[in-house]
Amino acid sequence: MSLTTDSRDPRLGHGADDQPVPQNEVYLVLSAEEIAKGFIRPVRRSYIHVGKITELKGGTIEPLSREEASRFGDPDKYVAFLRYPESESPLVGKALTQKEVDNVGKNIGGCGSFTTMNLTIAETYARDPKFYGATYCCSCQKHLPVNEFVWDGTNERVGS
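^ thats the sequence. predicted structure below, dont judge the formating
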C-alpha cells in the first residue's frame, strides 16, 4: 500500500464496497504542508467497526401499509417510515425495515474488529475529519462508510 496527494491518481479506489476486497493499492492523503497547519481532532490510529446506527434525528416513526411500502420497492421489506423534522429539509424521511425499527438507537451490522491505519492517513483524519467517506475494516475486508466506526477507546464516530 502506498500514499498519494494526487486525487486523479488512477490507482485510487473510491467509496464503500459491497463485497470483500483487498486494501487499495494507493490511498489519498493531505499534503505535508496541509497536515503541518495543525489538527482539528486528536491523531488516532485505530478504530472499531460497530456498525450502522438508526437514529430518529428528532423525527417520528409511522407505520406503512403494504401499498405505501410498495412505493419504496418490495412491499414485504419495509414496515415503517421515519419522517424527518423540518430542520432536515429538503430530506423528507427514510423507509425502514422491521430490523431497523427494532434497532433504533442501537448499532447493527458491525463485526467489532479493531483496525489500525498508517500514521499519515491518521493525520489526514485529524486535520480534516470529513476527508474520507469510507474506511477499511480488516476483518470484513471492505471499505465501509466512516460512520460505521468509532475511534478506539471512545464512542466518537470516525469522520465526525
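Residues 132 and 159 are 7 Å apart (CA to CA).
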